[in-house]
Amino acid sequence: MTNAEFAVLSLLSERPRHGYDIEKTIVERGMREWTEIGFSSIYYLLNKLEKEGLLEGRNEKKPGRGPARKVFYITPAGRKICRQKTLDVLATPFRCYPPILLGLANLPVVNGAEAISALTKHHEGLLLRLKQLRGKRSAQGTLPYFVDSMFVYSQTMIEAEIKMIEDIIQRLEKENDKG
Fold it and tell me: Is this model's pTM higher than 0.85 or not?
């Protein structure tokens, strides 16, 4: 099961939802900070999970006017898979492969000023992401602990990367001063 499939399944384990509600929740929780799930893939994933018997879609009339929406419910098989996948990911540290590490491995192919300039842009981008994440988190008000934990994790990771980039820039500046 992909992370995107797991993300959709887990949202449906909370309560039945239609595609737009899933997208809204993904945006509200800042889930694109920590999982690869595109807006355009939500309906594809819902249909795939339904074909696999993990979800059941039902056309339901909205209160008032408007067309019926397909609301998805997690099936017992889906709940079982979601539970097992949750335990697996909680128990297993996974490696991540951020591109910044490839950039750092290749620092010798650029000069110090170029590296400092590029890392400064990276640093600015991280500061913006952190500001946006904090804004999303505060806009949510009081969150269930499991949702707030996702914000805390993302914020902690961004803050750690900011610190690392600052340290590398300082080292590069010292190297440039020597040269």
Answer: no
Convert 84-118 to b/e letters by CB count within 10 Å (16 or more is b): ebeeeeeeeeeeeeeeeeeeeeebeeeebeebbee
Residues 119 and 30: their CA atoms lie apart, in Å, by 24
pLDDT > 90: percent of the chain: 69
Q: What is the mean pLDDT of residues 145-151?
A: 87
Contacting residues for 135 by C-beta, under 8 A, at least 6 apart:
none
3-class SS letters over 45-100? HHHHHHHCCCEEEEEECCCCCCCCEEEEEECHHHHHHHHHHHHHHHHCCCCCCCHH
Which residue type is seen at 166?
E
